[in-house]
Amino acid sequence: MTVATTSTASQTINVHDITAPVIASLPAPTTINCPATPSFTQATATDACDPSVTLTSADVTTPGNCPGNYSVTRTWTATDDCGNTSTASQTINVHDITAPVIASLPAPTTINCPATPSFTQATATDACDPSVTLTSADVTTPGNCPGNYSVTRTWTATDDCGNTSTASQTINVHDVTAPVIASLPAQTTINCPATPSFTQATATDACDPSVDLTSADVTTPGNCPGNYSVTRTWTATDDCGNTSTASQIINVHDITAPGDSITACTDNNKLSCNAIVYTGNSNRCMRSIGNTYIG
Fold first, then answer.
1. In CA terms, which of 3, 61, 138, 183 is 20 to 30 Å from 84?
2. What is the pLDDT of residues 260-283, one digit of tens each?
3. Which of 82-86, 110-114, 257-261, 283-287 has the lowest mean pLDDT?
4. What integer pLDDT is reported at residue 259 of this predicted model?
5. Residue 226 CB coordination number (10 Å)
6. Model confidence over 48-91: pLDDT tens digits?
7. Residues 110, 121 contacting (CB under 8 angstroms)
8. CA 27, CA 43: separation in Å to the nearest integer?
9. C-alpha torsion sign, points 44, 47, 51, 54
10. E-strand spans in 175-242?
11. What is the C-alpha separation between 276 and 290, in angstroms, rounded?
12. Phi-psi map region of 207: left, alpha, beta (phi>0 left; psi -120 to 50 alpha)
C-alpha cells in the first residue's frame, strides 16, 4: 500500500502604504485690494491606496506695515488612512491702496462783508479704516479791494495706510454795503449877514476802518440877494467803492431893515448923489439902494 506524503512552503509579502497623498497644484501667491477678503481655492488630493483622503486646512495671517496691508496663507494637509500626510499652501496678499472718500461739500457760496466764512465740517469714510484722520487748511485769496476776498478750506482725509484724498469748499466775501454817515442836523435858518457853518460829518463802515469823506456845497439863490440857501452834501466812500451821501441845509434870510436914520445928500451945488449915506446901523445884506436926489 502506497502512502501519499505532502509538504508546504509559504512566501509572505508585506504591503505597506508609505506614500503620502498628492495634493493638486494650488494657485501661486496673488494680491487683492482691501476691503476684498481672501478667497482660497479648494484643494484636492489623490492617493493610490486611499480613495477618500482627508483634507484639512489652517490659515495664518501675517500683518503688514498698516492695518489694511496683510497676507493670509492657507495650508492644506492631506492625510490617508495610513497616516501619511502631505501639505500645500496658497498665499493671498491684501493691500490697502484705496483713499478715503470725503462726503460732498457745499458748492462755492457768497456772503456779504462783515460776515466771516463758516465752513461745513467734512466727514470721510474708508472701507478699511473705521477712524480716518481729517485735517484742514485755509487759503485766503485777496480780491480787488480789502472787503472782497475768498477763502478756500481744503480737507485732507488720511487712512491708516497713508492713502489720502482731498476736498475743498470756497466761500467768497463781497463788500456791498455802503458806509453809514452819522445823522446831520436838520434844516436850519440863520439871519444875514451870518454865514453858514456846517457840522463835520462822520462815517462808519463795518469793513473799512478809514472811510473817505468828501463834501460839496451848492448855493441856491432866493428872491433877493440876502435870501439864499446852502446845501452841503457829504459823500462817504469805502475801500470797495461803496458810497453813501447825507446833506445839511442852512437857509439864510435877510430880515434886517436898513439903518435907522439917513442923512440926505443935497443937490445944492447941482451934484448928483450916487450913494446914500447911513448915519445909523447900515444893512450889509443890501448891495445897492440906487441913486437918490434930495433937493
1. 61
2. 444 444 445 433 434 434 334 445
3. 283-287
4. 65
5. 19
6. 999 999 999 999 999 999 999 999 999 999 999 999 999 999 99
7. no
8. 10
9. negative
10. 180-181, 188-191, 203-204, 212-221, 228-237
11. 8
12. alpha
3-state DSSP assignment of residue 61: strand
What pLDDT is attached to residue 5? Answer: 85
Strands 203-204 and 212-221: unpaired
Cα 126 to Cα 61, 68, 159, distances in angstroms: 22, 11, 7
Question: For residue 97, is it left (φ>0), alpha (ψ between -120 and 50) or beta?
Answer: alpha
Residue closest to 231 by CA, chosen among 242, 221, 240: 221
Neighbours of 172 (CB within 10 A): 16
0.85 exceeded by the pTM? no
Reading the block at residue 124, the C-alpha cell is 470721510
Sign of the alpha-carbon torsion through 103, 109, 111, 117 = positive
Q: With a cut of 50, say whether residue 183 has pLDDT above it.
A: yes
Task: Judge whether 67 and 128 are in contact, CB under 8 Å.
Answer: yes
Mean pLDDT value across the chain: 90
Cβ–Cβ under 8 Å, residues 37 and 7: no
CA 78 to chain centre: 64
Which DSSP string corresponds to 77-117? EEE-TT--EEEEEEEEEEE--PPPEEPPPPPPEEEETT---
